[in-house]
Amino acid sequence: MAPLTYRYVALTDVGLRRSNNQDSGYASPRLLVIADGMGGAAAGDLASSAALAEIRDLDRELDDDTDGDALDAMRTAVANANHRLAQLIADDPAVEGMGTTLEAMLWDGEKLAVAHIGDSRAYRLRHGRLSQLSIDHTFVQSLVEEGRITPEEARVHPHRSLLLKAILGRDDFEPDFTWLQPAAGDRYLLCSDGLTDMVDDETIERTMKLETIDAAATELVRLALEAGGYDNVTVVVAEFVPGDEPIDEDLVCADGKPQLVGAATSQPRRRTGSVSASSAPAVHVAGAPGAVEPDPEELRYAPLPVPRRRWVRWLLGSLVVLGLLGGAAAYAYDWSQRQYFVAPSDGMVAIYRGVDVDVPGLTLKTVDEVTRIEIDTLPPYQRDRVAAGIAAADHDEAKRIVTNLSIQVTEPTPTPTPTPTPTPRRTPATSAPTEAP
């Protein structure tokens, strides 16, 4: 079987509500990348393009002696991207708060090394079925995983764009890294949330089945714009084929050159100062001719003020954290004192208040009532249950457990007292009868 290779295409559009494109996309015979910049006027386009510039360093033949495998090289490149953003923020504090998502795949000739952070997504179409490969690092995704909302509700949740993880130039970022094994015929899609917020997965699946990846990418962008185009929309599509299969000369990738789209194609503008509602890009308000309101996405990603008295912020933050921990501890203790269980106490069955857990320096259980039931008078099975502790939802249930145990009490079998063996009475000797004459 011939080794695999892939065809590729990258496409972007600024959308119908944005004044600039903060997405950056890249596709080449070795590397596929999406970076969705965030920060609005705090330089989202600068963040995505700077991160992509570091990731593009992977688009070369890897040296096993210095780079390790493709996944090691990916980890290094993502760390470099994070460090680059930290440098930009240190040079210009006005852009603090900027960041970017990242979805990247590096082909080593056999498999894909993948990096993911944020809410840009990776999909795979295999045998006509679309599957989402990445897990969104968002607030609403955490609600879905906790079972508090459904995936359908997550699509329309007002905080669906609130990120929990992103590349922000900080030390506490935690990307996901993994391997993928492609097969001939697989199609992979990397996209920004400008697509997934506008187009559902069923429609994406149908579109990914179009005859060519160029047609699929074009149609995906068109559908996002047709649905409202509230955000920049960027897609990178790749299709795996046998390496000896001739390339269709009509495909954009027929020339074998890398494709770079979005913010990374131009020098992103540097920001200074702060942003206000009047300076943020605006959208028209329906039903109010001429009226505008600030773009909610731009305001959500508005830059932080230049840090001053940073130690005060750290102190206040620490106090808040300590307060939350103290509150949580107080709640946990209060909850424990509303619990009951039945267990032994000095050989007797007792009702305890609290939880049967030993915590050094803290008493979480106290004897609430000692019954008259001796442990030794219970059947073996019940003795074992009491020894292990029988949990009760409340005091009334604990009493019912004790009542049930009292019914099963068995009186100890008395030890029989030995009966003395009677001494046989001796019969006085009599003279033997004499025979009558």
From TrEMBL:
Annotated stretches, region: Disordered: 408-437
UniProt KW Coiled coil keyword: no
GO molecular function per UniProt: protein serine/threonine phosphatase activity
PPM-type phosphatase domain mapped to chain residues: 7-240
Keywords per UniProt: Membrane, Transmembrane, Transmembrane helix
Biased segments, Pro residues type: 413-425
A Pfam family hit: PP2C_2
Membrane-crossing residue ranges in chain numbering: 311-333
Domain of life: Bacteria
Biased composition (Low complexity): 426-437
Protein name listed in UniProt: Serine/threonine-protein phosphatase
